[in-house]
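re: ur msg from earlier - yeah i can do the IPE complex, just paste it... oh wait u already did. ok heres what im feeding in:
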Amino acid sequence: MDYKVPKHVAIIMDGNGRWAQKRGLKRTKGHQRGADVLKEISEYVYDKGIDVLSVFAFSTENWKRDKEEVDYLMDLFLKAFKKNFDSIKKKGVKVVFSGVKNKLSDKVLKAMEKMTLETKDNKNGIFNICLNYGGQDEIVEASKKICNDVKENKINISDINSKMFNKYMFNDLPPIDLMIRTSGEYRISNFMLWQMAYAELYFTDVLWPDFNKEELDKAIKSFNNRDRRFGAVKK
Ligand code: IPE
Ligand code: IPE
Ligand code: MG
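and the outut:
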């Protein structure tokens, strides 16, 4: 059997808080460690032939957390962007962001804009960072943009299909082949609902700060044992 590399891998990086609490540390320590793991994984995936990596960094629901934790996370994003940007750029990977701007600070928005702009012509892979992101919101926003284009006679209602709908999402990405969630939770928490339509799902009890290259290889191995029928019957 040929070894299949998923084209688009998406990860819900969960369990940072529990990782820290188990060690008697503040939750923020888990986030710090989680950021290091993301650096390692984001450098590894493109070497394996994966084209697109999407990660859930901050959900629109995460604003419900204590201000101290939210502030820490925003600051961590800035630091991580700075620290990891060079290696991403060197690899020729294009960085894109999915999510909404509201509530994000100017500093964070500026850093996001810089990364997007400076990597926009890169062709060696896509790193999609979902920050201030909600899956239902993304579909609603896309619908609004489509309605607007119909209103302005740019498109006809009969032009609307799933392929063109995809172009109205935050980013025009290929469908997710493999979705990984760490920390033993069996839910998708409003992550990339549209793109996940036919994804293979992989859940592991490993907490995100303990995740590593070997764990990613395990997930890809599991993906290789899946029989993806897409509704058809295999002859
Ligand atoms: C995931 O880890 C990171 C973010 C949501 C930003 P959590 O912070 O959710 O960790 P747990 O689930 O509380 O352990
Ligand atoms: C999902 O994890 C969001 C991120 C990983 C950024 P959460 O910890 O916020 O999700 P729930 O609360 O378990 O659904
Ligand atoms: Mg969590």
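cool cool. The first strand starts at residue 8 and ends at 12. ping me if u need the other ligands too
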